Amino acid sequence: MKESAMSVSSLVGAIDDIARCSSVLAEGIEGEFIKFVAQQEECRKKWLGAENEAIRLKQDIAKITAENEALEVKLKHARSQVEIEIKKRMKAEAAQDHMISQCHPDDRSSPRKRIASQDRIGQARRDKKHAFCSKTVIKPETCQPCNRRIKFGKLALKCKDCRAVCHPDCKDHLPLPCVPTKDTPGSAGKRARDENIEFYAPTTSPMVPEIVVKCIDEVERRGLSEVGIYRVPGAERSVRELKEKLLLGKIPDLRQVSDIHVVCGLLKDFLRNLAEPLLTYELWSKFVDAANKTDEDDSASATYQAVSELPQANRDTLAFLVVHLQKVSHCTECKMSASNLAKVFGPTIVGNSSTNLEPMQLLQEAKWQPKVVERLLSMPLDYWNQFISSDEENLRSPPFNPATHLKDGTPITPECTPVPASMLGPLTSGSHTVKKKGSFLSRTPLTPRFGSKSKHPSKRPTHFFASPMLK
C-alpha cells in the first residue's frame, strides 16, 4: 500500500510539473525576445559610434603628424639659416678687422700703442660678463651652477661667448669672467667656411676635393662588407672632431678611425654643409624635371644635358661620388641598393632649390631628391669615368652623350649607325694615329698661334700641323 501511495504521489507531482511547463510554453516569449533585440540594437549603435570615433581620431593623428613633420622641417631650416647667418657675420667681422688693420697700420707697429691696447683688452676680459640669450631646450642640457638637468621644452639661458647654459634663476651664480671657449662662433668664425665645392677642389683635373677622395678610398678599402653602409650613422662626436680638423686645414688620417661609419658621416657632413649643393641652385630644376620625365630616353638626354652644364668641380666630384655609389650598390654584402643610397644621398647631393622655402615646399622637394639620385646612378659607368680619368686622351668638353655618341666620341647618325670612316683611312703622323679630341671648347691645347716666339712648342699632339716659329 505504501509503495502504491508513493507512486501515485510521484505521478501527481510529475503531472503538476508538466502542467506548469505547458502553461509557460503556452504564454510565449515575444516580450523577452523584443527586449533582447532592443539591447542588441543599442549595442550596435554604440559599436558604430566607437568605430566613427576611431576613424576621427586616426584622421586627427594623421593631421597632427603632418603638422609635426612640417614644423620639424621648418625648425631644421631655421637652424640652417641661423648657422648661415652666423658664418656670414663672422666673415663680415673678419673683413672689418682686416680693413681696420689696413687703415691703421701704425697701431700695430707702435710698441707703446700695442702694449696699451693689450692692457685694455686684458682689463676688458677680466671684467667681461656673460651675454645671455634665451632658448627653448630641444636636447636636454645640464645647468652649470646647480648641476641639474634642463628638460625638453623648458626655457634656459645660454651665454653667446662661453656657451654656458643655466636656468634663468641661476644666471647670477655663473663664475666671472666670461671666458670664450674654442667652439664659440667668435673663435671658430675664422675656421668656418661658407664656400662651395670649388673652394676645396684642386685646380687640375679631376677637380675632386682631397677629403672626398680619402673618404671614398677608405670606404672602398674596408667598408664594402659593412651592412647598411652610409645608412648607419656614425658617432656625432667623432664626426665633429674630424670636421674640426678639416676646418683647420688638416686632412685627418682616416686609417686611424676605427669605425668606418664615422668616415661615411664625415663625407656626408662635408657635402651637406657646402654653401651650395653639388647640383647647384641654378641647375636644380633641370635635374628634377629630367628625373620626372616619363619617357626614359627623354629623361636620360635631359640629365646628360644638365650634367654637362655643371661647373667642372661640381661635375668631377659628382662623377667620382656616383662611380663609388654604383660600386656600393653592386655589393651584395652591404645590402644597399640604388634606391636606398638615393634616399640617403638625396638631401646631400641634390638639396633644395633655394635656401628660403616654406615647410610644404621642403616636403614636396624632399620627394624629388631620391628620384634625381636614382637617375644619376642609372647612367652608364663609362659616362662618369670620362670626368675622373687622369688620361688626357679621355678628356672632352662637352662630354659625350651615350645616346648620340660612341665611347670614342664619334657621333651616331640619325639611323643609329656610326659615321662612316674616311676612304683615305686614318690620318697618321709617324707611327701614331692623331685622334680627334672634340671642339674648341676642349681642354686640349690648339696649335700655337702664328707668330709665337716661344722656343718650346707643346709636346702634346695637336689638331693640325705645327705652325712655323718666328725667331
User: Can you summarize the main beta sheet?
Assistant: 3 strands, antiparallel
Strand content: under 5%
CA-based gyration radius: 38 Å
The H/E string reads HHHHEEEEEHHHHHHHHHHHEE
Count every beta strand, where a strand is a DSSP E run of 2 or more residues: 7
Structural class: mainly alpha
Q: Helix proportion of residues, in percent?
A: 40-55%
The number of helices is: 15
* Average pLDDT rating: 76
Coiled coil: 54-88
GO biological process, one term: mitotic cytokinesis
Organism: Acropora cervicornis
Biased composition (Basic residues): 452-462
Tell me what you see in this structure.
Helix 7 packs antiparallel against helix 9 and helix 13 (338-350) packs across helix 14. The longest helix is centred in the first third of the chain and has 74 residues, at 30-103. Residues 106-112, 182-193, 392-398 and 422-471 have low confidence and may be disordered. The N and C termini lie far apart (164 Å). This protein has a three-stranded antiparallel β-sheet with strand order 1-4-5, with no helix packed on it. Strands 2-3 form a two-stranded antiparallel sheet. The chain is mainly α. The chain is built from 15 helices and seven strands. Pfam families: C1_1 (PF00130), RhoGAP (PF00620). Residues 95-123, 441-471 are annotated as: Disordered.
